[in-house]
Each structure stands twice: as structure tokens, then as C-alpha cells.
Amino acid sequence: MKLAVMVNEGPYQHQSSDSAYQFIKAALGKGHEITRVFFYHDGVNNGTRFGVPPQDDRNLTQLWSELSKKHGLDLVVCVAAAQRRGILDADEARRHGKSGDNIADGFRISGLGQLIEAGIQSDRLVVFGD
Amino acid sequence: MSEIKKFLYVNRKAPYGTVYALESLEVVLIGAAFDQDVSLAFLDDGVFQLAKGQKTTDIGMKNFSPTYSALGDYEVKKIYVEKESLEQRGLTPDDLLHLTYEDEDYAEKDSIQLVSRAELADIMDQQDVVMSF
Q1: What is the spatial distance between Cα A10 and Cα A127, in angstroms, rounded to a whole number?
Q2: In 3D, which of A101, A33, A107, A100 has the Cα closest to residue A69?
Q3: Is B63 within 8 Å of B55 (Cβ atoms)?
Q4: Strand partners for B109
């Protein structure tokens, strides 16, 4: 089955992105295809590489990056939600005159159209939120 | 991308206090460009999103409720409000914004339909894509 996943909460404060991550790993293990993971609301905070969680805790952003690399996952951060919350790639940083960018490996910033498109092109859209 | 799917946006939270309502509306507006079969549902505290007479100056936030009135221009014609949620909050349909769209003959039609919890469950069941906020 072609599955799209939407993640609506940031890491650590809520378990949503942990659940989404575990769900995707399990779905891939069962042979399903993940068409896209779309990060919205505070979910965009999954995409900052500046997080430094304690060493004995999971590093969700790193887990996402590794999973993306292993399976070619398309991790998309909503641009409008990202701008509000200070998640920037090099292009966005330049465009808005910011001194640095913080997007993590495997993530890309794009528009809400990517979410709608994923909904249209997938068999299911699975939403992880509060 | 010629396939038309049934999209339902479920709004369950108050308009202020969290950003879900505002960012949900942004998805609806962008999604309108994709020519899908779109419906909106308002339930739980989400019914407050459609309350008329919202004034936000004292909390320093933008009152985005006028945007709901533009939904008709975006071809969003089906707005379901859950009856039980309204009643539980002491609201009546008269407390809500008057949302309309123009039909093929340019006649103004009401967008808001009051539905029971059971009817809303059926509506959700008929959808291809349900996003809840």
C-alpha cells in the first residue's frame, strides 16, 4: 500500500513523531511504500539539526535522517509553518537575511501543496498529532 | 493528477490558544487549488472557530475569522457543524458566521449544515482523506 504520513507535533513534547517514526519503520518492514512524510504545525521542529538531547535519550531528528537515508524517504517540512518557527534551509536563510540555517539531513522545505498531493497520490494518509 | 478525492478537514480546537485552527485554514486554502471534493467539519471546541463577533485585539492576535467567509469563493461549499458540540457549549446556529457560496446560477446558498454526531460519523466514513486539526 502507498502510505503518506503527516506529523503535527514536535519531538519530545509529544509522542506523535515517535509514533510516526515507529509506524513508518513497521510499515516499511511489511513492504509498504511511504510516499512522503509531511511535517506540519510544531512537527516542523523534527527537522532542526540544532537539537541536542541527552545522550541516553533518542535523537529523533537523527533517527529521521537515518531512516530517510536508508529508505529514500521524502521528508518535507512545510515552509509556512517552518518560517514561523525558525526552521530554515540555506535558501530560506538567504531569502530572509538570517545568519544561518538549521535543516537536518534528509529534510527539505516545501509548500502545503506537497501534503495535498501526497493525499491524492497515496492509498492512505495517516495523521500523527495530539 | 485527474483523480478527484474526497478531502475532509476536521477542526476540533478553539480558534485561539493554539495555532491548529489558523494553520488548518491555511491547508484548506492551499488545498482548494487542487480541485478536490472538499468538506470541512467543526466539532468539539472547533465550533468556536465559526463564532461571529470575534474580537482579538486584547490578546494581541490577528482575528482570522473573516477568512472563513471567503471559503465560498474557494469552492468550499460543504461545512458541517456538529449539533451536539454546539449545544454542549451553549451555542446556537445564530451565533455562527453566515457562510455562503454561489451555485451554478449565481444563487447564494448556505455553506453550513448542522449535522448530528452520528451523521458526521457517516460523513467521515465516506471520505478518502481525513485530516484532523
Answers
A1: 14
A2: A107
A3: yes
A4: B101
CB spacing of B27 vs A116 below 8 angstroms: yes
Q: For residue A18, give the CATH number of its domain.
A: 3.40.1260.10
Rounded CA-CA distance A72/A68 in Å is 5
For B11, the 3-state DSSP assignment is strand
The answer to whether domain B6-132 has CATH 3.40.50.150 is no
Q: Which chain A positions have a beta carbon within 8 Å of B26's beta carbon?
A: 80, 112
* All structural domains of chain B with their residue ranges: 6-132
Residues ≥6 apart with Cβ < 8 Å to A113: B30, B33, B34
What amino acid is encoded at A117 in this protein?
E
Helices and strands: H and E segment counts in chain A? 5, 5
Q: Which residues, at least 6 apart from B38, have a Cβ–Cβ distance to it below 8 Å?
A: B7, B8, B9, B28, B31, B32, B75, B76, B78
Report pTM.
Answer: 0.94
ipTM for the complex shown: 0.92
Instruction: Give the best residue of B18, B24, B25, B30 to mutate against chain A (max A CB count within 10 A).
Output: B30
Q: What is the pLDDT of residues B64-116, one digit of tens each?
A: 999 999 999 999 999 999 999 999 999 999 999 999 999 999 999 999 999 99
Please state the domain count of chain A: 1
Amino acid at B14: A
Which residue of B26, B34, B130 is in closest CB contact with A80? B26
Query: Which residues of chain B are at the A interface, by a Cβ-Cβ cutoff of 8 Å?
Result: 1, 3, 5, 7, 19-20, 23, 26-27, 30-31, 33-34, 36, 128-133
